[in-house]
Structure formats: structure tokens, C-alpha cells
Structure of t-SNARE coiled-coil homology domain-containing protein:
Amino acid sequence: MEMSMLQQVVPRQENYTQSWAVALHNVESTISELSGIFTHLATMVAQQRELAIGIDDNMEESLANVEGAHNALLRNLNRISSNRWLIIKIFAILIFFLIVFIFFVA
């Protein structure tokens, strides 16, 4: 009787060992797949980092361009304003001479 029990235990252990081997193989393949996924993810993150750095550089360049354009517009506004006052002064002097000419010469 002991022999028959021993014969029953041995196949169970073999089945347990085989199922354990299959489970370990499944875990190993899952870990390999996860490794591939994380490698791919790391590559994507590196590419996105380069893209973000490029965007940051473009933003800084755009900001510098906007500030330069703002300064140029302010210079033009000041130039136009000073030209207006010059034109107004010349016009006032011409009107003054016209009035003097009309009253004193005519």
C-alpha cells in the first residue's frame, strides 16, 4: 500500500514541477515583454524631451523677436509723434506769417 501511495505522489510532484516550470516560463516571457515596453517607453520619452527642448528654444527666440518688434514700434511711434509736432510747428509759423502778411502788407 505504501508503494501505491508513493507512486501516486511521484506523478503529482512531476505534474507540480511541470506546471511550476510552465508558470516560470510565462513569468519570464511577461518580464521580457515588459522590458521591451519599458525600453520603447524610454525611447519615446527621450524623443519627447528633445521636442520639448526644441519648443523651449523656439519660445525663447520668439520672445526675443517680439521684444525687438515692440522696441522698433516704440521707436517709430516716437519718430512719428516728433514729426507731427514738427509739422504742427511749421504750420503754425506759416499761419503766423500769413496773418502778419495780410494785416501789415495788405
Notes: The mean pLDDT is 85. The CA atoms of residues 55 and 92 lie 55 Å apart.
